[in-house]
From TrEMBL, chain A:
Its main location: membrane. It is found in: Cell membrane. InterPro entries: ABC_transporter_permease, MetI-like, MetI-like_sf. Pfam families: BPD_transp_1. It comes from the Bacteria. This is Sugar ABC transporter permease. Residues 92-306 form the ABC transmembrane type-1 domain. Keywords: Cell membrane, Membrane, Transmembrane, Transmembrane helix, Transport. The chain crosses the membrane at residues 31-57, 98-118, 130-150, 177-202, 231-251, 287-309. Belongs to the binding-protein-dependent transport system permease family.
UniProtKB/TrEMBL annotation, chain B:
Keywords: Cell membrane, Membrane, Transmembrane, Transmembrane helix, Transport. Residues 85-281 form the ABC transmembrane type-1 domain. It comes from Isoptericola peretonis. Belongs to the binding-protein-dependent transport system permease family. The chain crosses the membrane at residues 21-40, 89-110, 122-147, 153-175, 196-221, 259-281. It is found in: Cell membrane. InterPro entries: MetI-like, MetI-like_sf. This is Carbohydrate ABC transporter permease. It holds the Pfam family BPD_transp_1. It is a multi-pass membrane protein.
Length: 317, 295
């Protein structure tokens, strides 16, 4: 964005200098631009625009016993249904709650670890940086499986650990605790990745700024909050958007945990799970597409609003 | 740096702070490592040893069954586990290399060629980064099933070629990494546009290439929703979906279908390749993952 602007500013001088013989070459070169773009564009059209358009088309039609198995145009009827569907709305509210709890928790932890790592250069700090990052290399399915085992009263260490204090282990897979148990899995999985991004951004700051601040009497805390965090605002905005989009699409972890915690996780737990079960358990592809499209719109609006609200911090104008 | 610090804080307070920082890091590292430790320990236990063992959940039992478990992975259901592993590799490598190649070409074009519609294209690309890819899975499934491609490797590989975020990252990187003057100078020397790309641009884009390759390979390797939706044949599943099926069966079924020891050992073996790759490629990804930060 700033880069585009600078190009535009710099461009006139250059083009003015050699406009005469260049226009022909430039049109030829334009084709090269499109040629390089072509392979990606094919995939972009086939696997993004077409499915998106098709989902929209499906969402405007209904096919089922009521329509005699024919696909019938029903306009916005599916949307009226989805936005009054208690299952969809409660799923949306649930992923909304996940966003409110999980995103600040993950980003907060990632920034805290990155800030501490940034002030140290010991062997231990380097090792812990790697160890914190490792869960990113582990598929979400495997991560959820492992935590499922750890939560389980049959396999897990919880009963032993709580037994030391003479307590009964809580049932992490119960209806009351499953929310927190899922928050824990996702936090465990993603903090390392966000931490590495924040850490790399911190390393890119010129350390002479800190020297100047120290001479002015700033303590470590002031440097962290007044200098470091504002200077990495654009990276923070980016990881919040990643976390936001990822959380609203919540699917893998609750789906995997369902087989050990069926009572606590219904098939309508998140909008994506609801869409999946509508499509593959009930063969209601029209309604499933409506759910997916409605979710897509809400995610798009959510991240757009966030990016707009933080455009100053991110430099994205 | 220390001299400046000591001007304001006594050495003892700095020392305490360093100790506190290290304690914090040790606790954090423990939290992230304990589940993996559990997995390592769990994969050395027999099926029944996972429930009742001399070592408890976080320590080894007297009986060390890791090699038996690995052997059993080769024989259980005709060694289907290794078919899943091969599938995962195929999907991750084809999806990763393919989407990275497309992303590098497209990102380079968006950064270094001026053509009509470029800004519109780039805005659309930025918008598509915000489209949740899982929202596309169900319509993609319906489309592929009409083309008769459900239950084939193509159903996983082709949608995995799409990586708008990859294009965005390469574009951001290429704007600064490839000087226009360098391209112009090579053009004056008579180099064609293809030659420019391979000889000038590609070497300069290597850090972006490696980062995007890593991100897309991990994304395909980890993918769950898409293969779960478009594959039915057990022989085509990636290891993530396969192990999850074992887990669902073990929880629902009785006796012979309970293969807890294979789940733990299979999970451990399946995460080793990526962990090794990340450790080996450290110097590439550590700086590279920050590429995406919006400038």
């Amino acid at each position: 964005m700033t880069s585009t602007t600078t190009e535009r500013v710099a461009a006139p001088a250059r083009t003015r200098r050699r406009r005469a013989g260049q226009s022909l070459l430039d049109t030829k070169r334009q084709w090269w631009g499109w040629l390089f773009l072509a392979p990606f564009t094919v995939v972009f059209v086939l696997f993004l625009l077409v499915p998106l358009g098709y989902a929209f088309w499906l969402s405007l039609h209904t096919q089922g016993i009521a329509t005699g198995g024919e696909s019938v145009f029903t306009g916005v009827a599916n949307y009226v249904r989805v936005f009054t569907d208690a299952d969809f709305l409660s799923g949306m509210a649930r992923v909304g709650r996940f966003v409110l709890v999980m995103v600040p928790l993950q980003i907060g932890l990632a920034v805290a670890i990155a800030l501490v790592l940034d002030t140290l250069a010991t062997r231990l700090s380097q090792a812990s940086r790697l160890l914190v990052f490792v869960p990113y290399a582990i598929p979400a399915v495997i991560g959820a499986l492992m935590w499922g085992f750890l939560y389980s009263p049959r396999f897990g260490p919880a009963s032993d650990l709580f037994g030391v204090f003479g307590l009964d282990a809580p049932d992490f897979l119960s209806r009351d605790l499953i929310f927190g148990s899922l928050v824990n899995i996702v936090t465990w999985q993603w903090v390392g990745y966000y931490m590495i991004i924040v850490y790399a951004a911190l390393r890119a700051i010129d350390p002479s700024i800190y020297e100047a601040a120290k001479l002015d009497g700033a303590g470590n805390r002031a440097i962290a909050f007044r200098i470091k965090i504002p200077m990495i605002a654009s990276s923070m905005v980016m990881i919040v958007v990643f976390a936001l989009i990822g959380t609203l699409q919540f699917f893998t972890e609750p789906t995997v945990l369902r087989s050990v915690a069926q009572g606590a996780i219904p098939t309508t737990y998140t909008p994506n799970m609801y869409a999946y079960s509508m499509a593959f358990s009930y063969s209601q592809f029209n309604y499933a597409s409506t759910i997916a499209f409605a979710l897509g719109i809400l995610v798009f609006i959510g991240s757009y609003v966030f990016l707009y609200a933080t455009r100053k911090q991110s430099g994205l104008k | 740096m220390t001299t400046v610090t000591t001007q304001h804080t006594s050495p003892r307070r700095t020392g305490q702070r360093r100790l506190g920082s290290h304690l914090f890091l040790i606790l954090a590292a423990l939290y992230f490592v304990v589940p993996l430790w559990w997995l390592v320990v769990g994969s050395t236990k027999t099926n029944s040893g996972l429930f009742v063992g001399s070592g408890g959940a976080l320590w080894f039992n007297d009986e060390f069954a890791l090699w038996d478990n690995v052997k059993q992975l080769f024989t259980y259901q005709g060694g289907i586990y290794w078919t899943w592993m091969r599938n995962s590799f195929v999907y991750a490598i084809v999806g990763g290399v393919g989407s990275t190649t497309l992303a590098v070409l497209a990102g380079y074009a968006l950064a270094k060629y001026r053509f009509r519609g470029r800004n519109l294209y780039f805005s659309m690309l930025l918008g598509s980064v915000m489209v949740p890819l899982t929202a596309l899975t169900i319509p993609t499934f319906v489309l592929l099933s009409q083309l008769g491609m459900i239950n084939t490797m193509w159903a996983v590989v082709l949608p995995s070629l799409l990586s708008p975020i990859g294009v965005y990252l390469v574009r951001v990187y290429a704007v600064d990494a490839i000087p226009d003057e360098m391209l112009d100078a090579a053009r004056v020397d008579g180099a064609g546009e293809l030659r420019l790309f391979f000889r000038v641009a590609l070497p300069l884009l290597r850090p972006a290439f490696v980062t995007v390759l890593l991100l897309t390979t991990v994304a395909t390797w980890n993918n769950f929703f898409l293969p779960l939706a478009v594959l039915r044949d057990p022989q085509l599943l990636p290891v993530t979906v396969g192990i999850n099926q074992w887990q669902t069966l073990s929880n629902a079924g009785a006796g012979g279908e309970q293969v807890w020891n294979l789940i733990t050992t299979g999970a451990l073996v399946s995460i080793l390749p990526l962990i090794v790759a990340f450790l080996a490629l450290q110097k590439y990804w550590q700086g590279g993952l920050s590429l995406g930060s919006i400038k």
